[in-house]
Amino acid sequence: MSDDKLVGIVLVSHSAEVAASVAELAKGLAGGGTAVPVAPAGGTEGGGLGTSAELIAAAAAAVDRGAGVAVLTDLGSAVLTVKALLAEGDELPAGTRLVDAPFVEGAVAAVVTASTGADLASVEAAAAEAYTYRKV
Fold first, then answer.
1. Residue 50 CB-density burial (10 A; 0-12 exposed, 13-18 middle, 19+ buried)
2. Taking the complete model, does pTM exceed 0.90, yes or no?
């Protein structure tokens, strides 16, 4: 399968380390399937805690393969930053979607589903379904 038709995944966290670690975890748990384009967008340009519209836009451009980009976020202001970028209309690749999902579980579900060649709607649904995962 060619990766030019895979949904890209962007993981937006207030922490560069958290975003990178969740990306590594999700890719690792996806197993030996097709490598999904995943990019962390964590923290600020200066390495501090926060979110950066510029880092998010660069990450989305980096993973865009023409099949859509699913963006998962950790906390409130990350959501607001992504929503502002989407409202701008030209800051993110066409077909970029903010996905309402838990950050870690949703990222794993999104990457695993995208690795099968699923479309953006299926990737989004799998990530959102992670809200139903019970731990007890």
1. middle
2. yes
